[in-house]
From TrEMBL:
Keyword Metal-binding: yes
Record carries keyword Transcription regulation: no
Protein's GO biological process: inositol metabolic process; phosphatidylinositol phosphate biosynthetic process; signal transduction
Cofactor(s) needed for function: Mg(2+)
Coiled-coil residue windows: none
A single MF term (Gene Ontology): inositol monophosphate 1-phosphatase activity
Top-rank taxon: Bacteria
Protein source organism: Sporocytophaga myxococcoides
Binding positions (Mg(2+)): 69, 85, 87-88, 213
Enzyme Commission number(s) from the entry: 3.1.3.25
Protein's name according to its UniProt entry: Inositol-1-monophosphatase
């Protein structure tokens, strides 16, 4: 399988879907919002975007299964499985606040081998394939070479449900606010990971996510020379339950989280 060629086909598809989302943004009717749960919103734009992606990806790799956020197709894992978030950052989209993105990953044997994150507003397409490097609009990207916590900019997110982790999570954020250049919450995990990959963020952490939020982004970070772990520096991150992605400041960023997270 030629992963580079496959990746380029996915990029072309996400460009089509990006144009659809951008067009719908201009005249979106807020009355068409649906609620999947508290602060968990969905619109016809999410669903139509996912339908477009599924149709296109079936043409690209007919034998593959699918894991999708909006369940427009039955979940089925096969030797190759597409993992799709058609509009990561729906709440931002509904309020016309950048940023939001399309995220498509291809998984086999428990690892991601192709990843594309297309940020809609800036029309920035981040992509990678296994052992091929990571790129932004045709230019290879790398994680930030900074190694110091005090010179870092950190990305994070707030899960829909913080469960019993509210206090400790905000203690970690408070520590980063005090000891870094700052903490940013963009509202799209896929974009956060892409920003780590291209060196805009030194690190990103969040918990209680889903696989479609992070599948493409974690490959971007790895192929850009970064590190992806769970909060204990282990390998249990693909589910999204705990994700830490960093450039070269990994050790100092991870230490802050490990000290407080149990």
């Amino acid at each position: 399988m030629n992963l580079e060629h496959l990746c380029l086909e996915v990029i072309a598809l996400t460009k089509e879907v990006r144009n659809f989302i951008k067009h719908e943004l201009e005249n979106f009717d807020l009355s068409k919002i649906e609620h999947k749960g508290k602060n968990d919103l969905v619109s016809y734009v999410d669903k139509q975007s996912e339908t477009m992606l599924v149709k296109g990806l079936k043409d690209i790799l007919p034998e593959a299964g699918f894991i999708t956020e909006e369940a427009t197709i039955n979940r089925e894992e096969k030797t190759y499985t597409w993992i799709i978030d058609p509009l990561d950052g729906t709440t931002n989209f509904l309020h016309k606040v950048p940023s939001f993105s399309i995220s498509v990953g291809l998984m086999t044997e428990g690892r991601i081998i192709v990843g594309v994150v297309h940020e809609v507003n800036l029309n920035e397409c981040f992509y990678a394939w296994e052992e091929g490097g990571a790129y932004l609009n045709g230019t290879q990207i790398f994680v930030n070479t900074n190694t110091k916590l005090e010179e870092s900019l950190i990305g994070t997110g707030f899960p829909y449900s913080l469960l019993d982790k509210t206090d400790v999570y905000f203690e970690i954020i408070k520590e980063f606010v005090k000891k870094t250049h700052g903490v940013r919450r963009l509202g799209s995990a896929a974009v956060d990971l892409a920003y780590v990959a291209c060196g805009r963020f030194d690190g990103y952490f969040e918990f209680n996510l889903k696989i479609w939020d992070i599948a493409a982004g974690i490959l971007l970070v790895k192929e850009a020379g970064g590190t992806v772990t769970d909060f204990k520096e282990g390998n249990d991150y693909l589910s999204g339950k705990e994700v830490l992605a960093c450039g070269k400041a990994f050790e100092e960023i991870s230490a802050v989280i490990k000290q407080r997270w149990s």
